[in-house]
Specification:
By secondary structure, the protein is an alpha+beta fold. It has 4 helices and 5 strands, in the order αααβββββα. Strands 1-2-3-4-5 form a 5-stranded antiparallel beta sheet. The longest helix has 14 residues. It starts with a helix and ends with a helix.
Length: 114
């Protein structure tokens, strides 16, 4: 086992930037890359810890702590995305990726400060 940038970022207390770099630098399917790049370009979202799972982008306030706030953006097509949030159970279908990103940012703003 080796000690990498992400492990060091966890030790330093701010793993989100390292995880973004890891995801953005890796080989991705074109639609995953588009989703990652658009979310990273959204200034309100790039502060959250990202992950990709089965074509969905998952953003969370604190890694591995769903209760702190987790938003999932699932693109189904160019004109259909779903935004869900835990722990609130929020769910909204939207008609564009940009709208999904704005809804995701609003979800995080709706949470009380941690």
């Amino acid at each position: 086992m080796s000690w990498g940038e992400l492990a060091q970022a966890f030790e330093d207390g701010d793993p989100a930037p390292a995880k973004w770099r890891q995801l953005l630098s890796g080989d991705r399917r074109p639609h995953d890359r588009l989703l990652l790049e658009a979310a990273h370009a959204h200034l309100d979202l790039r502060v959250f810890y990202p992950d990709l799972s089965m074509g969905s982008l998952i953003l969370c306030r604190k890694p591995f702590d769903v209760e702190s706030g987790l938003v999932k953006i699932t693109p189904f097509s160019e004109d259909h995305c779903r935004v869900t949030m835990r722990p609130t159970g929020f769910r909204r279908d939207v008609t564009s990726l940009n709208e999904a990103l704005d809804v995701a940012a609003a979800c995080f703003r709706s949470l009380p400060d941690a």
